[in-house]
Automatic annotation (TrEMBL):
This is Enoyl-CoA hydratase. PANTHER family: ENOYL-COA HYDRATASE, MITOCHONDRIAL, ENOYL-COA HYDRATASE-RELATED. Pfam families: ECH_1. It comes from the Bacteria. GO terms for molecular function: catalytic activity. InterPro entries: ClpP/crotonase-like_dom_sf, Enoyl-CoA_hydra/iso. One of its GO terms (biological process) is fatty acid beta-oxidation.
């Protein structure tokens, strides 16, 4: 029933070309779909579009639960735009960008907004979800995956970088520091069932979006005050400084003197995804 109501709700809202953020809402649940064809990566512009789409929903009294999902078959958010990362690090090396700017980027703003949300935000992962895409999912209230999510993880180390969009802190919060360290040092990429066993996702079901709609409907039926209180009182401010330090440390990779941006540009030119690297 809820899925039917969503499909007949307000029409999709498109933002940017070719990047698309679609918002579908009906009654008290909103579905936000992200797409950036053909590869499904996300840039800071994409993160800004998600902030612009989700922030009004968090403020709207009539919206009581939000679902974030992918708008392309087989992709949630594949990973961050590696070309943009390479360009940014190159500019840091040239002195035209301050590493501190990474802590105030749209990507950082998106993660902080989701962390602080006082409404449930469910990541419905029906496809590839790595790197920056998984960091966004980690900032959500919960994560539901389907078998179509054949690659979930933080494989940045394979490109000689590290998760700089909140991954070091939010993964540690989720599974513990030791397991998170090993996961990132290995650059692990998992199937949905492996991610469930590792505690990275909360459920694996045939269709993540269908299950997310069911859960969103349940949350929407609860007391708004009680739900908000639970989310507010279980939030933590302890990670803020560490998240900022993580982002700045990521930016400082551009100061190492290594040929890092060049390697990242080569990867971007190769037209492949992180799931193909070992």
């Amino acid at each position: 029933m809820l899925a039917h109501r969503i499909s007949n709700g307000k029409g999709p809202r498109m933002t940017g070309k070719p990047l698309r953020v679609q918002v579908e809402s009906a009654e008290d649940v909103a579905v936000v779909r992200f797409a950036n064809p053909p590869h499904g990566t996300i840039s800071n512009g994409g993160a800004a579009d998600l902030v612009a789409a989700i922030r009004p929903l968090l403020a709207a009294a009539e919206t009581r639960a939000i679902i974030l999902t992918g708008g392309q078959d087989g992709i949630f958010i594949r990973h961050a735009d590696v070309r943009q990362i390479a360009t940014s690090l190159e500019r840091v090396g040239m002195g035209s960008v301050d590493p501190q700017a990474f802590a105030t980027s749209a990507f950082a703003e998106l993660g902080a907004m989701l962390d602080a949300a006082e409404k449930p935000v469910i990541a419905a992962i029906d496809g590839l979800c790595m790197g920056g895409g998984f960091e966004i999912a980690l900032a959500c209230t919960m994560r539901i995956a389907s078998p179509a999510a054949t690659a979930i993880g933080l494989p940045e180390i394979r490109l000689d970088i590290f998760p700089g969009g909140g991954g070091t802190q939010r993964l540690s919060r989720l599974v513990g520091r030791h397991r998170a360290r090993l996961f990132m040092l290995r650059g692990d990429v998992m199937t949905a069932s492996q991610a469930l066993a590792a505690g990275l996702v909360d459920e694996v079901v045939p269709c993540a979006l269908d299950r997310a709609l069911e859960l969103a409907g349940m949350f929407a039926g609860r007391s708004t005050a009680a739900v908000s209180a639970i989310l507010r009182l279980t939030a933590t401010d302890e990670d803020r400084e560490r998240l900022a330090a993580e982002a700045c440390r990521f930016g400082e990779l551009g100061l190492t003197g290594e040929a890092l941006p060049e390697a990242l540009f080569q990867f971007a030119e190769g037209d492949v995804g992180l799931e193909t690297m070992r």
